[in-house]
Amino acid sequence: MLDFAIFAVTFLLILVGAVLYLYPASRQASGIPGLAPTDEKDGNLPDIIASSSLHEFLVNLHEKYGPLVSFWFGRRLVVSFGSIDLLKQHINPNRLLDPFETMLKSLLRYQSSLNGDTGESHMRRKLYENGVTKSLQSNFALIQKLSEELLAKWLSLPEAQHVPLCQHMLGFAMKSVTQTAMGSSFEDDREVIRFRRHHDAIWSEIGKGFLDGSLDKNMTRKKLYEDALMEMESTLRKVTKERRGRSFNRHVFIDTLLQGNLSDQQILEDTMIFSLAGCIITANLCTWAVYFLTTSEDVQENLYKEMDHVLGKGPITHEKIEQLRYCRQVLCETLRTAKLTPIAAQLQELEGRVDQHTIPKETLVLYALGVMLQDSSSWPSPYKFDPERFNEESAMKNLSLLGFSGSQECPELRFAYMVATVLLSVLVRKLYLHPVKGQVMETKYELVTSPKEEAWITVSKRN
Known about the structure:
By secondary structure, the chain is of the alpha+beta class. It has helices at residues 9-18, 45-50, 54-65, 84-91, 99-107, 118-138, 140-155, 165-182, 189-205, 209-212, 214-217, 219-243, 253-259, 264-295, 297-311, 325-338, 369-372, 393-401, 411-427; strands at residues 68-73, 76-81, 163-164, 344-348, 352-354, 357-359, 363-367, 431-435, 443-445, 449-451, 456-461. The strands form 4 sheets. The protein has a 4-stranded mixed β-sheet with strand order 1-2-7-4. It has a 3-stranded antiparallel β-sheet with strand order 3-11-8. A two-stranded antiparallel sheet has the order 5-6.
């Protein structure tokens, strides 16, 4: 089962360290076009750093060499796929890893399931997915309440006032995830603020300090990171102790884990992963969705009409979400246009062939999802924000192949889709969303794609 999720340059470090570090017999990548090593020791790592991000490095590499390319990370061969057609050829014969879980667990110094028992890992993954599903069902009214609170805040602002979209969406996502994952103790804003401080300290180092080794060289930063991680873990242990063996009005994510046959450490790890990933994916999906709506009055008006037709004056319900087809198209197009999670990976366990090229055993294979999401052969007018493209079944199939829809989407993204749908149903029926003139939106490609600077919008009340 594909389970694509967020990924960064760091994953190269983690996965290479997790498998045998073999010196290749040849510096030629079995005829696959690409770069020769820039440095004997580091391979093409200097080129990646010079490109600012792994995604931007891969964009340039695929533009120059085509849909199948190779480069070197240290002395290990890396192959990157930049087209959906090649991805189709490569899916079936290989066991896929969960790049987010493997990377994040390694960075947090948790035991990775890379070499664990397959049956146990599958059981644990199903428990995790069920926890997300049950927590969404049980906390639907809560997510709606938080959306209404944000609406009230925006309605109270003068119409000309600039709204800091990234800041507000992160705050909204933090409240949604913490209360859905860990319960009512996070109804206290002080607890959410404390969580956000620790979350930001951890997340800022993932994909940055671990790439160039700067974290280990800066003792102040390292201590801030380790202290934040320790405080987060302490909070999760406290919540686990408080909820074990007790019943509450609302079922939350950690309750499902407590009902499973997991150790306290496994419960801590999975709650940490959901908390970190859920916050950052939800926040950025909501940010980009609202931002893109401000840039297209037609899309915004079409979304309003669907909401008005399906929901009328009443609140959104869990049952009616499936009827909001255009809203789902807007979110799919948001993910595609923003390239929300630009890279996934797997290890080539056995020698394979793709497009007449041999991929040697133990090769790290990257799926350049950000490249595929804007490939003109799969997406006509790829740089245009156009939710109508998902009227076509082929577009939805492409998105599913990339792990962003259907049975293959990761649990954190499924959570984000639901939360974003509820939020848009509240905002769009009451507000017009406007861009700030002259704003130039630059993009930062890290674990999850986000605006490089604050994204500003204005709002006005609908009659």
